[in-house]
């Protein structure tokens, strides 16, 4: 979901909001918004170094170094698996051993192969040996506990058959982090009632079913909650990033992207047709250098100013460092970000979340 409107100044430290009201008709100055360095230094997140220096703070992760003999045995075992894999592939090609894997029927027709050669080799000869511990089907909702369907293999994991039993297990790897996938409770009850009232096609695109009353109500509720003029709801988070960034950026624009951004943001940047550069993850000095360079030198070859410069980051890590910019040029018109602002620009605040 994405909300957009001219926004009052918000300097955010996770759930605590420090607000200094700003209105377009007022003069921007120290009386309205204190210097950003002084404001953020008082309320910013501590850096990792500061955390590590505090007693009881976040400590560096420690990993036991792999012993030399363990590393040698691992590489030796891997090499032996490869040798036997090549031998068995030769036997399969010679029809001495039965081919149990899937065969691409279009391979002989000149189509591009579905798998790379080594990927297919690895799947046949290495992954198949341990495939029984992956992709385990369940017979329950992915809650704190799950019922794992028991299965066995009679041909070394090429195929599996179900025994009809289930194994009760603690779920440590669910994607159900919001608790929506439950068979009882308010989420399940409201979902059932919504299906009875609106049907099952209300998650379709608006180009198919149009804008419905509940879409308008949801967007107004989101706008009220976020204290913005309006909002727009999308049915898929990946598509929100990948298909809306091209609306904001085009040829002649520059996008500065954190090197750790999600694949959906990267896809949206590439689809936009804009030029893009990456900066070191959470490195504000590196970002400032890239900004200064972009503003001073402009576009390659022509040195014309960029139409606009857009900063693309992810909110999940936006408070790891201080945004200690000294001066931002007015040519920076928009930021694709959440609760981010400089005292030298006025932009549209765009928030995206699930």
TrEMBL record:
GO cellular component: membrane; serine palmitoyltransferase complex
One Gene Ontology biological process: sphingosine biosynthetic process
Keyword vocabulary terms for this entry: Acyltransferase, Transferase
Pfam families found in the cross-reference section: Aminotran_1_2
Sample GO molecular function, one term: pyridoxal phosphate binding
Residue ranges occupied by any Aminotransferase class I/classII large domain in the UniProt entry: 169-307
Cofactor(s) needed for function: pyridoxal 5'-phosphate
InterPro entries the record matches: Aminotransferase_I/II_large, AON_synthase_class-II, PyrdxlP-dep_Trfase, PyrdxlP-dep_Trfase_major
Similarity annotation: Belongs to the class-II pyridoxal-phosphate-dependent aminotransferase family.
Name of protein: Aminotransferase class I/classII large domain-containing protein
Natural source organism: Rotaria socialis
Lineage: Eukaryota, Metazoa, Spiralia, Gnathifera, Rotifera
């Amino acid at each position: 979901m994405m909300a957009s409107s001219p926004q009052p100044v918000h300097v955010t430290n996770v759930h605590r909001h420090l607000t200094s009201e700003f209105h377009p008709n007022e003069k921007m100055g120290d009386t309205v918004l204190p210097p950003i360095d002084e404001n953020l230094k008082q309320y910013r997140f501590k850096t990792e170094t500061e955390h590590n220096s505090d007693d009881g703070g976040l400590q560096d992760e420690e990993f036991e170094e792999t012993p030399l003999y363990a590393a040698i045995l691992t590489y030796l075992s891997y090499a032996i698996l490869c040798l036997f894999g090549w031998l068995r592939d030769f036997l399969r090609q010679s029809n001495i051993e039965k081919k149990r894997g899937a065969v691409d029927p279009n391979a002989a027709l000149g189509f591009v192969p579905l798998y790379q050669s080594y990927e297919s080799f690895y799947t046949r000869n290495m992954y198949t040996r341990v495939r029984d511990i992956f992709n385990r089907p369940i017979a329950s909702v992915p809650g704190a506990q799950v019922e794992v369907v028991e299965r066995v293999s009679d041909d070394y994991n090429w195929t599996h058959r179900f025994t009809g039993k289930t194994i009760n297990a603690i779920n440590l790897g669910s994607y159900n982090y919001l608790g929506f996938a439950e068979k009882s409770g308010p989420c399940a009850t409201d979902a059932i009632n919504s299906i009875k009232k609106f049907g099952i096609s209300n998650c379709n695109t608006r180009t198919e079913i149009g804008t419905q009353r509940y879409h308008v109500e949801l967007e107004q509720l989101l706008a009220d909650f976020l204290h913005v003029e309006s909002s727009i709801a999308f049915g898929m988070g990946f598509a929100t990033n990948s298909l809306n960034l091209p609306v904001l950026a085009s040829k002649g624009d520059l996008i500065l992207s954190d090197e750790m951004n999600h694949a959906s943001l990267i896809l949206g940047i590439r689809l936009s047709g804009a030029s893009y550069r990456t900066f070191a993850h959470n490195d504000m000095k590196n970002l400032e250098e890239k900004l200064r360079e972009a503003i001073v030198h402009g576009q390659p070859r022509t040195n014309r100013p960029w139409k606009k410069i857009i900063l693309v980051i992810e909110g999940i890590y936006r408070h790891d460092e201080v945004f200690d910019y000294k001066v931002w040029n007015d040519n920076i018109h928009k930021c694709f970000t959440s609760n981010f602002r400089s005292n030298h620009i006025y932009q549209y605040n765009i928030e995206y979340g699930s």
